[in-house]
Amino acid sequence: MISEKMQATLNRQIELEGYASFLYLAMASWCDSEGLEGCAKFMHRQSAEERDHMLRIFYYISEVDGHAKVPAIDQPPLTFDSIQSLFEQVYAHEQKVTASIHKIVDLANQENDYTTLNFLQWYIEEQREEEALMRTILDRIKLIGGGPMSLYYIDQEIEKINAIEEKAAAAEAEA
């Protein structure tokens, strides 16, 4: 059985993960409209991943005899100043998600909720990976710079990341 406080906290996390999914979907649409196919593909995959994160929590709450809530999701922005500012926003959002997960871990520790604590370990590792990936992308964008061909090269770099991520997902599916 899950405490009311933990249930409410996890339901807020569902909302945060759902917003991330919608935000990344909006970013994918913007990238697509800017001709950044690699970036659009990357953001579509990130959107689906965030939805999966949301659903994991949703199902977990039910497994521990709680009541998961379907959140109302705020409208994310539809346009972005640049591809760099877009990825800066992604990085900032991932940091916000990480901080939220850490607060849930703190609550699980306070409540001696070892089941939730164990469940959250996957999220801790996932967030470390997400933040590292976004820092890598931002580093590459900064290295490429803002010249006339920069968007093409940025899109190509993101497409390389897409290939790596797809290969890793395929290997994981086979395991």
Give the helices and strands, then pairings.
Elements: H1 4-33, H2 37-63, H3 83-110, H4 114-144, H5 150-174
Helix pairs in contact: 1-2, 1-3, 2-5, 3-4, 4-5
The name CATH uses for the topology is Ferritin
Order of helices and strands: HHHHH
In angstroms, what separates the terminal alpha carbons? 32 Å
Strand content: under 5%
Please tell me what the overall shape is: elongated
Rounded Rg? 17 Å
CATH architecture call: Up-down Bundle
- Name the poorly predicted regions: none
Mean pLDDT equals 95
Number of domains: 1
Residue share in helix:
over 70%
Number of helices: 5
Structural class: mainly alpha
At the fourth level of CATH, the homologous superfamily is Ferritin, core subunit, four-helix bundle
Oligomeric state as shown = single chain
Q: Using the coordinates above, name the CATH class.
A: Mainly Alpha
Fold and architecture overview:
- The chain is mainly α and about 180 residues long.
- The protein has one domain: Ferritin, core subunit, four-helix bundle (Ferritin, Up-down Bundle), CATH 1.20.1260.
- The protein has five helices and no strands.
- The protein has helices at about 5-35, 35-65, 85-110, 115-145, 150-175.
- Helix 1 (about 5-35) runs antiparallel to helix 2, helix 1 (about 5-35) packs antiparallel against helix 3 (about 85-110) and helix 3 runs antiparallel to helix 4 (about 115-145).
